[in-house]
Every structure is written in structure tokens, then in C-alpha cells.
Amino acid sequence: MDRRTDRDARAFADPCRGTDASALLARLAALRAADLPVHGGRTMAYVYDAGLTALDDLAARAQDAVAGVNGLDMTAFPSVVTLENEVVGRAARLLGGTAGTAGTFTSGGTESCLLAVLTAREHARRTRGVTDPEIVLPVTAHAAFHKAARLFGLRVVSVPVDDGFRVRPADVAAALTPRTALVVASAPSYAHGVVDPVPAVAATAAGHGVLCHVDACIGGWYLGHLRLVDDVPEPPPFDLSVPGVTSLSVDLHKYGYTPKGASVLLFQDAELRRHGWFAHASWPGYPVVNATLQGTKPAGPLAAAWAVLERVGTDGYAELSARVHRAVRQLVDGVGEIEGLRVLGEPDAALVAVASADPRVDPFVVADEMRLRGWYLQPQPAHAGSPANLHLTVTAAAADPARIAELLGELAGAVARARELGPPSVDPGLIELARGLDPDSLTPEEAGLALEAAGVGPGGALPARMAPVLAVLQALPAPLTERLLPEVVSRLYPGADARSGSGVPG
Questions:
Q1: In this structure, are residues 164 and 194 in contact, taking their beta carbons and an 8 Å threshold?
Q2: What Pfam families does the entry give (predicted)?
Q3: pTM of the entire structure?
């Protein structure tokens, strides 16, 4: 027996002869130590925490129960059909669906939005003969819709918003053409937490025979359950019960507090949903039919979402939504008492945008000060009439009055320190030079020089204080910023040689 044969035989006899399991887990723990915390309510973007620790164990056990199941073929794994039907059914009942409402479980809000746009494109092509489709988007619409337009070949028609950051139906009407495949409204918009006037927008779209999608990814589960609470104001109408709304997306891994990878896309009926499906039998392999962008689909997120939704229940979500509502009001009122800050718009949901009311207080510097003290508030650069601000997502884990009071105290201190430090300086000469660059012809070397001028070093490590970097990126023309952002990320992922070592002794 040669050495290769002997090695293979030993490997098959002992399939777990690699790195020790405890060393691997220790390595993961060490890596996670540098991450933002996902529990406790101090990370006010990206993560959603119910503050109910038992849900984590339930979700993990549910995922483990279906770890090997592949949602690609529902005829081979009928459990995924039952679970998906029950999850979609729960979402439809909450969000204005009828007996004919159809839906699809997806990997997240971006995939739900992509599928909504793809479905609208195909619907416009097949029913109206539209070959050069357009999508009408408020400037506050999520970036996922711009991604969808780029991927699926739609032209974006941007529509401004009013002083409260809500789109005006008259502007939507003026943007419609025979090529419009889809109109989008937000419930709420991510940047400011306000709900667009969905009934008027949907009626405008329907009057022109155009589909209307409501992006309720971040707010649908929260707002839908908040309507069930007696002692709070009724949220604005936004769901499938509104005439003219033809589809709606809602994420479960946000205010459903399920593990990541769980969203639902609802359609007014199965016929509309069918336009977004892919089927292929013209090859030698098995017949393929996909309702999502994925082929192979892990059943874990679906099972975990199902388990968490069933465990918390309607009354549980209504209580969590009520707690968050009270916390948002406490936060908004408290921000109004901090000299130098103001809330943008009038939030309808659990998202709050906080801007400066004092030119000496830069929001990006405030964000740095908060992060250095264990809080993450998401910086949002100025755009289309919205000034630079800080985004706060309020979840149930942060909804304790004492925790909000702690946050407000930290925020007041950060504002005072930011006032002393002053805004970051931006070299006017650098900005003037950058304005002359062509983003499409920018070489990696030129991009590297621009990033180094902005404070991003060649090694990929980002500075502890991001305010100077964000100030420069905000001052540059948007096309140039969009060209530089991938360069920033690419520095975090160097060539394969740099990643070859696991750092774990083996």
C-alpha cells in the first residue's frame, strides 16, 4: 500500500482527526470578541434582540433538527412545505392578506426586495409588453431596490420626499410612464423611520395599472402587532389590505426576533407570485423550479423562524411592540432635551434618526464617542436634503426605561465631548482634486491614494475613529464614493495567500 492509499484509509477510519474541537471553538470565541455585541441593546443597528434568552436555545434546537434538510426539492422534504405554509400564513393574517394571498420564505429583506422587483419586471413584460422597464423609487427607498434594478435591468426613476421625509403621491404620479413596472413605498423607510402615504401611493399606481410594493421589511412585524395594542396611536395603514398594494416584504429576523436569514414576501395572489418563479427542464439533469434566488436552501432558518414565531405568539409580539413603542417615545423626548441634537421627521416605527442642531457637534464624532463607550449608533451621511445623522434601531432588549435613560445620559456626554473636539476637517484641495476624477476609469492605485488621504491605510485596518473617513466620503461625489467603497471592503479581504493560515494549531 503506497503512502497516499494508507493516508486515505486512515482518514476514512478516523474522519475527525483534524483540529481539536475545543481549539476551534476557542478560536471562534476569540474572533467574536472583536465583534459588536448582538445582545443587550447597545448595538442599535444590524441586530435585533428580544431580550428573551430562551429564544436562542429554542431556535438553535429547531435549526439542529433540520440541519441536513435541503429546501431545493420540497417533494423530497415535505416538512419545508408545511413550515413555510405556516410561516407565510401567519404573516398574511397579520398583514392584511386574504384567502388568495400567496407568499414565499426568503433569506432576508434584500432577497425579498429583489424578488419583488424581478416579479414586477416579468409581469410588466408578459402582461403589458414592457421591454425597457422602470421602477419608481422615493429617494428614501432602501438600497436593495437599486441593487435589484441594476441586476435585473430596470431604470430607476427617483422621486423626492417632503420635509418629513415622506414621498408625495403627486410626485409619484408625475414619475409614472408606460414603462413603469413597479412603484415602491416604505413602511417605514430605514433612514428616518417614517411610513410613506401608502394608500395614496398605491391608488396612484393602481390608477395607471402599475404594481405597488410596500417595503415593510424592518417595520411590518412591529407595526402589524402594534395595531393590536389598545393604548397606543394607530399606525398608518400600509399592508395588503390597502387597495392597490400588490406585494409586501416583511423580515422575521428583525422584529420577529428570529435568527438571521428569515423574511417573507407576500403577493396579492398566486398568479402574481408565479411571474417571479424560475423553472427549467431543458437540460439532462433533474427538473428545476425555484421560487427564490437560491437553489439549495438550508431549512434551518425556516425551522428556527417557525419555532420562534409559534413560541412568542401574537400576544407576545404585541407586548414586545408596546414596550418598544414606549421606549421610542422616551428616546425621542429625551433627545429633544439634549442641547445640540434633534430628531429628523416624526418616527412612525422603532427607528430614530438623530441629527445635529449645533454646527460644533458633528454626528460622526458623536458616533465615535459612543462606540468608544460600548454603544453602536449607525452613522448616516447627508443625502438629498437629509443631513448627516445617527440611526438608532430600538429593539425590545433596549426597551427598559432604565436602559433608555442610560443611553440618553451617554449620548449627552458624547455630545459634550464632540462639541469640544469639533467637526473633522476635510481638505478642500483633496475634494476639489477628487471631483475631477472619473470613477469609471479610476485605477486601483488612484483609489488607494484617495483612500489613504481619507484615512484608510493600505493594510485594510480601519481607524478607531471613523469620523474623518466618513466626512471625506460624504463630501465626495456619490459616484466616486460608490467606486471607493468596494476598495475599502476589498482591503479587508486580501488575496488567498493572506488568508491561508487558520490561526488554529492543527
A1: yes
A2: Pyridoxal_deC
A3: 0.93
pLDDT tens digits, one per residue of 177-192: 999 999 999 999 999 9
Place of cell 478560536: 27
Q: Which residues contact 192 (CB under 8 A, 6 or more apart)?
A: 140, 165, 344, 345, 347, 351, 353, 386
Comparing 19-23, 170-174, 274-278, 442-446, the range with the smallest average pLDDT is 442-446
> What are 263's strand-pairing partners?
106, 251
What residues have CB less than 8 Å from 312, skipping those under 6 apart? 50, 52, 55, 256, 257, 320
Long-range contacts of 267-270 (CB under 8 A, 24+ apart): 267/101, 267/102, 267/103, 267/119, 268/100, 268/101, 268/240, 269/100, 269/101, 269/102, 270/100, 270/102
Same domain (yes/no): 361, 487: no
Residue 227 pLDDT level (bands cut at 50, 70, 90): very high
% of the chain at pLDDT higher than 90: 80
Cα separation, 371 vs 244, in Å, equals: 43
Cα–Cα distance measured from residue 111 to residue 412, given in angstroms and rounded to the nearest whole number: 38
Domain that holds residue 354: 313-421
**Which residue, chain included where needed, has cell 413603542?**
325
Q: What is the CATH number of the domain that holds 341?
A: 3.90.1150.10
pLDDT tens, 203-214?
999 999 999 999
pLDDT digits (tens, 9 = 90+) for 453-472: 777 777 667 788 999 989 98
Rounded-to-integer distance, Cα 506 and Cα 502, Å: 9
Domain count, the chain: 3
Angstrom distances, CA of residue 341 to CA of 357, 360, 382, 419: 5, 11, 15, 11
Q: How far is it, in rounded angstroms, from Cα 321 to Cα 342?
A: 24
Question: Would you give the DSSP letter of residue 146?
Answer: H
SS3 263: strand
Q: Is the pLDDT of residue 506 over 50?
A: no
Cis peptide before 133 (omega within 30 of 0): no
DSSP 3-state assignment of 164? Answer: coil
C-alpha cell at 167: 414621498
In a domain, 466, yes or no: yes
Residue 465: closest CA among 502, 497, 417, 433: 417
Give the chain's count of helices (H) and strands (E). Answer: 18, 13
Q: Does residue 404 contact residue 327 with C-beta atoms inside 8 Å?
A: yes
| pLDDT band (50, 70, 90) for residue 503 | very low
